[in-house]
Amino acid sequence: MTITIYHNPDCGTSRNTLAIIRQSGEEPEVIEYLKNPPSRERLVELIAAMGMTPRQLLREKGTPYAELNLGDPKWTDDEILDFMLAHPILINRPIVVSPLGVVLARPSEKVLDILPNPQIGAFTKEDGEVVIDSQGKRVA
Prior knowledge:
Arsenate reductase, two-stranded antiparallel ribbon, oxidoreductase, 4 helices, elongated, Thioredoxin-like_sf, Arsenate_reductase, alpha+beta, four-stranded mixed β-sheet, Glutaredoxin
C-alpha cells in the first residue's frame, strides 16, 4: 500500500503528520514539495480529490500571499494555480494521499481518517499536544 506525503520538513504540522503515518506502520513516499513541486496536472488532481478549490489550498502565513494581493477575488482558479506553481510555498501542506483518500492534514491528526491502520497507539505532537491517549483513543 502506498502513501504519499507532500512534505515541508520545516513545518511542525508536516513533521507531526509524517510521524503519525510512520507510527501507523507505513513508510510513505515523502515529496519535499518546495524542492519538487507537483506538476500543474497533479496539483489539479490533488485539489479535486480533496474537494477543494485552488483558493482554499492557498497558504497565507510565511508566503508572498499579501504582496501578490492573492486575497483579491479577481484571481481565477487558473491564475491561483499559476501563482502556486511559481511560488510552491503558497501550497498549503501537508497533503497526504493514500488508497483511502486525499487530505490536507491540518491539523495533523486528520491523516488518521485515511490511514489503513489508524490504530497507532499513544501519540503526542512535538508541542506536547496529545492526539491519541494511552488507551488508543483520539483526544478531541
